Amino acid sequence: MLTPADARTPRFSVVEATIPQMRTALARRRITSHDLVLQYLTRIADYEDRLHAAITVNPRALEQADALDRERARGHIRGPLHGIPIAIKDNIQTMDMRTTGGALAFEHLVPPYEATLVKNLRAAGAIIIAKTQMTELANWVAGPPTPMPGNYNAVNGYGYNPYDPRRDPRDGFYDGRPAMQTGGSSSGIGTSANFWAANVGTETSGSILNPANWTMLVGIKPTVGRISRYGVIPITADQDTPGPLAKTVTDAAIMLGVLEGAPDPYDPATGNCPPPPRHDYTQYLRANALKGARIGIPRAYFYDPVKAPGDPMPRGGLNPAQMQAMKDAITALKSRGAIIVDPANIPSVVDPDPQSNFLLWGICGQGGEARGHDDNCTIAFKYGMKRDFNAWLDSLGERAPVKSLTGLREWNLAHESGGTIKYGQLLLDLSDEMDVERDKARYEADKAKDIRLAATHGIDEIMKREHLDALLFPAQSAANIAARARYPSIIVPFALVPNAPDPPFPDGFDPKPAPFGVTFTGMACSEPRLIGLAYSFERATKRRIPPRLP
User: Fold this and answer.
1) Mean pLDDT of 506-524
2) CA nearest to 65, candidates 193, 196, 191
3) Looking at 33, 187, 205, 207, which residue is catalytic?
4) I need a labelling partner for 462 at 20 to 30 A (CA). Which of 90, 195, 204, 432 fits?
């Protein structure tokens, strides 16, 4: 209980509170974990019906907080998240709450084992207060011509952005989707709206960086294998990785260290990167980390439009408001002593050879490419989904609601009247066409080309040539190339820009400004350096603006 002296202290509020501030308040007995959870549950009760930030709220969160308060009273502190409420994406397995992946077939699934990262969170004292909204099965369900809107799933509907939690009013888009994107298959809604301290997302290509960008959060997409994927519903083990979303670089760094944990025998990739001493990434939070750092500006495509070989029209580029934001960001980097290398174009993005140009090497399925019509794209996603999703279902044993990807597709069709596949299931269909044995040679060749264009002839080549510490990308635009390279990125909130979709909103709608961040990307296992750069940039700018909720 709080002492009388503590009672005279102004009430601690969870709104915009950081993890270090919570830890200090708990240590000084200004607040209990019970009260932290109660404040967060109150905010969820007030705003969840407008935002849809959670698929499941932990009914035992207060009970778990009380147990952690008793441990604290006895002098036992489990770790850096002791008694702090954290949320996790609903494709991450827990044994005390369901894990749906947003799919109706898994609506009541309670898995027989927990994800390794969940064990790491619990060992550090975290209270898992909720399972967050997500795009169904991490957005590998529907494809063209009816792609699934971000943060939609059949279990919980649409997620809404706290910076403008209204429905899209445009003709052809008025199906309940949000007027402002929430970004990616993970969700930053609840962290941004102060429903919990931070959350864990997963990324295969953009699903940490994108939601962090659209909800004004820090997101760390780690090197593949830095954090165990065991117990996470997969798309493909080649690129899947969990990672933290938080309000500050410090919070994200604390989360990364906890999530990393020891090498996991169930995920051999966890030995790819050496951890820092004690898994403590906060030692890299240096305000002067940008001084003398060489930061590359990949102008072609990411800032300025560029023509790919054979293309009649240029691709990519920023609009004027986004370009001004990046100019301001570069000015801030220079003010902290960074050396700007501009341009530092990615070689595979400007390569005149079509076979060596990254822009011409898409992901099969994005254009509806079926077997026999998929020569000029990578099958790594649709092949990996067939291989890894079926293996995941096998791991559930008797608790698996369906026994294979084929079984899921059939279940969805049989229950279509119940809302299973509002946008279709083209990507599941394309994955199920794959033959894991017969298509293995093609898959291996495509995976090698992914690495060559994204890493060897891409990020590696320019960073080594120019001796760079990082590349600076606008918003989440680095997601695809960094993900296919399996490399880390950190996004930091920076600006608000017009929310101006095409086609435009109708007259009189008055869209609110949209968040816009900047991303630092490096080569494999460079998280320590990127964290320092991101922290120094955050200290120099301090641009996060909380959403205004009534």
Assistant:
1) 97
2) 196
3) 207
4) 204
